Amino acid sequence: MKWVYIEEISEYQDQDIELRGWLFNKRSGGKIRFLLVRDGTGIIQGTIFNPQEESPLFKQFDELTQESSLIVRGKVKEDKRAPGGYELEIKEIEIIQIAKDYPITPKSHGVPFLMEHRHLWLRSQKQHAILQIRAELIKAIRDFFDGRGFRLMDTPILTPSACEGTTTLFETEYFDQKAYLSQSGQLYNEATAAAFGKVYCFGPTFRAEKSKTRRHLIEFWMVEPEVAFALLDDIIKLGEDLVVFIVERVLEERKKELDILERDTKPLEKVKKPFPRLTYEEALQKIKKKGSKMEWGDDFGAPDETMISEFFDKPVNITHFPLSAKAFYMEPDPKRPDLALCVDMLASEGYGEIIGGGQRIHDLSLLEKRIKEHQLPKEAYKWYLDLRKYGSTPHSGFGLGIERTLSWLCKIKHIRETIPFPRLLYRIYP
RNA sequence: UCCUCGGUAGCUCAAUUGGCAGAGCGGGUGGCUGUUAACCACUAGGUUGCAGGUUCGAGUCCUGCCCGAGGAGCCA
């Protein structure tokens, strides 16, 4: 009998097939029994029905417990009463392993308990749907950049020093030296951009900050394009194109999962170019009118970001932040040298910053000056300064946070559900 | 690091002013011919986070500690 997956079950109507999976749930009603089987691609209801005599299948049914692994064989039938529209008339059950006392029962559970059982929680429908969308999102991002002639450049995870010199890094041993886990691939990408023109890196990044909010992970994934000769405006448009592309893709390909998550897709359908754009100072004025106590020079806090995004029904680009609030490599605005040529994109529906980027300093002496001002170790940036000595060009790039973007797409409250095994403050198990 | 809230059965929670520690789910047993987190009946299941204190009596009040959650700052 042919082994098939539930996602392709409609192609096998009225045929005998084999499914390999796990018992999701079971129900019984006298001489009829229902087995809900999942195989990683979907869930199907199997029926055992025998009005004449006691079937040996009934005994196997009674033995089966939630999440027991099994192989079932039978005929595929279309049936409106079945969840999913198809069911399997079971002819044979092969029990692989009986799962005793599966901890995650069909009733409600609390967050600490579920986090403690994250390795099993992944099997439940909502978590499964979120991670299906995550995989789609990552594929969409790769397709977007590959389709535009960008080269994927893997930047190092073990680095000799702080990239930006601002956030706290994880320190580790590198034989007789110290090394740090990467917090961004950007600086290395500035080098690869000068070699390949348009590049992106996609990988994990690490922040040893004691952040304890629904928007922070200790280990998270980021895609960072970098484009030689690009100016701020080019990179803002690139960010818009990227976000429009991934939203469209997820709406097209992951309708089923968005339904499972009960995600209202109307706000996502509005995500079309161009996105509203305002400067830091314009945004500041808007939120001050609404009662924010933020002062010029501060970065937007989480409630401020929410307030700004509520003015619009699309993601919004905020540009020209005070230079003092940004990293050392930011290019100053020639018209306003106290402002940076940078952009933060805030997702709609109050989800906050998903993109941060801008134009990088390409003048050698200005960069040297900034490194000094930020009291960064000059030796560590020798190679980085070389990029300004040998064929320096204006160039720009940004980073998009995968988990924050996914939280928004799925409208998930907490970012911990958007990665299979979240690393959180005070939680590294499982 | 700071602020706030919480910890009672495997899980989710209840327990009035300090007065016999309970329910639903899950487990077990039995029943039901179409269930949709199925349902019905019965049943087993407890060091009330830990240590101390007040009291005739503490899940409840007090002190300290541990663990967890939400938020702030920082950031994607």
Could you explain how this protein is built, in words?
Helices cover 30% and strands 28% of the residues. The chain is an alpha+beta fold. The longest helix has 23 residues, at 125-147. The protein is elongated. The chain binds one RNA strand of 76 nucleotides through strand 2, strand 3, strand 4, helix 2 and strand 12.
Short description:
This protein has 13 helices and 19 strands. The chain is of the alpha+beta class.
Which helices and strands appear, and what pairs or packs with what?
Layout: E1 2-3, E2 16-29, E3 32-38, E4 43-49, H1 56-63, E5 69-78, E6 86-97, H2 111-116, H3 118-121, H4 125-147, E7 151-152, E8 158-159, E9 171-174, E10 177-181, H5 186-196, E11 198-206, E12 219-228, H6 232-253, H7 255-260, H8 266-269, E13 277-279, H9 280-289, H10 302-309, E14 316-319, E15 332-333, E16 336-340, E17 342-347, E18 352-360, H11 364-373, H12 382-389, E19 395-401, H13 402-410
Parallel strand pairs: 1-2, 4-6, 7-11, 13-14
Antiparallel strand pairs: 2-3, 2-5, 3-4, 5-6, 8-10, 9-10, 11-12, 12-19, 14-17, 15-16, 17-18, 18-19
Helix pairs in contact: 4-6, 4-13
The structure holds one RNA strand of 76 nucleotides.
Give short descriptive properties of this protein.
5-stranded mixed β-barrel, BirA Bifunctional Protein, domain 2, 8-stranded mixed β-sheet, RNA-binding, 430 residues
Main β-sheet, in a few words? 8 strands, mixed
Q: What structural class do helix, strand and pairing data support? A: alpha+beta
Give the percentage of residues in beta strands: 25-35%
Poorly predicted parts: none
The average pLDDT value, as a whole number, equals 90
Share of helix among residues? Answer: 25-40%
CA-based gyration radius: 26 Å
Number of strand segments: 19
- Going across the biggest sheet, name each strand in turn: 7-11-12-19-18-17-14-13
User: So how many helices?
Assistant: 13
